[in-house]
Amino acid sequence: MDFGKLPIDQLAQVDFTLPPDHAITAATLQEANNNPNKKPQVFVGCPVWADKQWVGKLYHASAKEKDHLMLYTRQFNTIELNVTHYQIPTEDTILRWKAASNEGFRFCPKFPQIISHDKQLQEAEGLTREFLDSILGLDDHLGMPFLQLAPYFAPRQVKILENYLRQVGMPIAVEFRHPDWFTNPQIWQDTLHMLQSYGAGTVITDVAGRRDVLHQALPTPVATIRFVGNELHPTDYARADAWVQRLKGWFEQGLQQLYLFVHCGTNRYAPELALYWIRALNTHCGLQLPEPRLLPQVVQGSLF
Question: In this structure, are residues 246 and 16 in contact, taking their beta carbons and an 8 Å threshold?
Fold first, then answer.
């Protein structure tokens, strides 16, 4: 993911401290915390399933590309489904994805860019219905769909967003990228309450070059987090540790679901970073998430 990425040599200049929670978060979680003993549903995955760099590491060396999804769903329990950002999947594609999926696996499809970026949510009723009908075919394998607003979609268009959420009529998460959403506290507060009224959540993105999108605002008791690491730089682990402690508090307060998508530079090391996250969540949050099984890597020259 290129949004907000910085060169490695600039990371030392970034304050990676997690900001405090937005006021709406505590209120949302307190209202949802009607069964404090109930375990949250936690889904952790990557942004792709087909990566040649994972063959021999996440997948066995002889794995064929057509089998990567099936193998991926046996290692992780969710995926940030970016392919739907570029094309609405056909019924045959949906059936193929379902057939390849392990029990409990969730796809989190991104709204098509023709709707979010090209049309900016206007005059897109037909395309929206086509997309929703398609992903609803995933049945129990449908996770949290998310709408990534264009970087030029600004607060002055908030009524367009509200009309679109009314049209969608199902829970989704919304990712805001234009900086003006976050510069005026009243605008952001009003936007969050509008989302809440439609049962829509937010996408929280932790990326080095755009700390404003790390807004820590939950209008629903479902957190959708995109964590962008930097090729296993030491800050990746420190940031993950801080997040796990924050999530531990959110779970205790009433967070019901977490969708966490782990990016890592070119994603070569996304499985390793996701494994670190899963182990930390299990250790500190009392979860029992299955760990992906990474195959040992042969280091060239190590036999001599």
Answer: no
Q: How far is residue 62's CA from residue 226's CA, in Å, rounded to a whole number?
A: 31
Q: Which tens digits make up the pLDDT trace of 49-98?
A: 999 999 999 999 999 999 999 999 999 999 999 999 999 999 999 999 99
Do the beta carbons of residue 12 and residue 184 sit within 8 Å? no
Instruction: Return d(Cα 1, Cα 124) in angstroms, integer.
Output: 26
d(CA 79, CA 274): 12
β-strand partners of 124: none
Beta bridge partners of 92: none
In angstroms, the first-to-last Cα distance of the chain is 39
Above 60 in pLDDT, residue 249? Answer: yes
Find the largest Cα–Cα distance for the chain. 66
Consecutive H or E run containing 280: helix 270-285
Coil, strand, or helix at residue 79? strand
Tell me whether residue 249 is exposed, middle or buried, using C-beta atoms within 10 angstroms of its C-beta: 0 to 12, 13 to 18, 19 or more. Answer: middle
Higher pLDDT, 266 or 302: 266
Asked if the model's pLDDT at residue 219 lies above 70, the reply is yes
Alpha helices in 74-214 (DSSP H): 91-100, 113, 125-136, 158-168, 180-183, 185-197
CA distance 120 to 154: 10
Token pair 């949050």 in the structure block, residue: 285
* 3-class state of residue 68 by DSSP: helix
Per the DSSP assignment, residues forming a β-bridge with 263 are 228
Q: Are 72 and 44 in contact (CB under 8 A)?
A: no
Q: Write out the two tokens for 214.
A: 């790390």
Measure the CA–CA gap between 85 and 66, rounded to whole angstroms: 21
Average pLDDT value for the chain: 95
pTM over 0.90: yes
Q: What is the DSSP letter of 265?
A: T
